[in-house]
Amino acid sequence: KMDDDDDIPQLSSHTLAALQEFYLEQQQREGMKTSQGFNQYSIGSIEEDWQLSQFWYSDETASCLAKEAVLAAGKGGRIACVSAPSVYQKLKEQDGEDFSVCILEYDRRFSVYGQEFIFYDYNHPLDLPENLLPHSFDVVIADPPYLSEECLQKTAETIKYLTKGKILLCTGAVMEEQAAKHLGVKMCKFIPKHSRNLANEFRCYVNYASGLD
């Protein structure tokens, strides 16, 4: 009698072993996450995608920028993170603080953050949901994904639409003139660092009296 399993392709024992090993590793990784009280907001819980020109800040830098944003926003303030997910993640770790935050990001993996995630493509700077009212954020933190004037100019439209006034921009040192031209921001003394060293020197720019000098 024909065996029913005959038409099911069999995996070679080698492939099977490799697959089991992969699943085991994955389980261990997941296990570690839960045993360490895995935090879905920790930097690196979503890995960098270099094709999207993503580079996360070091923990220290993200904490510093998050702290600055909270101070700038004030009590009950609203903070928008435009293409700056690691600052968003840091802000979310400060639970119980009196502020609210949104993340505008092209990478849909960040939609795990639910209502606070807003899909954003800098090529369409004002293509934003209706509930994002103009000038409804006390401070906007932005890190345009590319070091080009076009990218900065378009991101600037979004920033100007969202902010009540305060802007915290993180971009390359080479963008100093364009940043002044498009957003009226000046370079701070604070030097942001990334978890992997970038070739381009990075700087922060603000248009208000910040704690970053």
Keyphrases for this structure?
DNA_methylase_N6_adenine_CS, 18% strand, 213 residues, EFMT1 methyltransferase, protein-lysine N-methyltransferase activity, Efm5/EEF1AKMT1, cytoplasm, alpha/beta
Radius of gyration equals 21 Å
CATH top level class name: Alpha Beta
Span between termini: 82 Å
Order of helical and strand elements: HHEHEEEHEHEE
The portion of residues forming beta strands comes to: 15-25%
Instruction: Please state the overall shape, judged from the principal axes of the Cα atoms.
Output: globular
> Quick one: CATH superfamily?
Vaccinia Virus protein VP39
Fold and architecture overview:
There is one protein chain. With 213 residues, the chain is α/β, with parallel strands linked by helices. The protein has a single domain, classed as Vaccinia Virus protein VP39 (Rossmann fold), CATH 3.40.50. It is 32% helix and 18% strand. It has 5 helices and 7 strands. The protein has helices at residues 13-35, 59-73, 85-93, 149-162, 176-183; strands at residues 77-82, 99-105, 117-119, 137-142, 163-172, 186-187, 202-206. Strands 3-2-1-4-5-7-6 form a 7-stranded mixed β-sheet, with helices on both faces. Helix 3 links the parallel strand 1 and strand 2 (99-105). Helix 2 (59-73) crosses helix 3 (85-93) and helix 4 runs parallel beside helix 5. It is globular. It starts with 12 loop residues before the first helix and ends in a 7-residue tail after the last strand. It catalyses: L-lysyl-[protein] + 3 S-adenosyl-L-methionine = N(6),N(6),N(6)-trimethyl-L-lysyl-[protein] + 3 S-adenosyl-L-homocysteine + 3 H(+). One of its GO terms (biological process) is methylation. Pfam families: N6-adenineMlase.
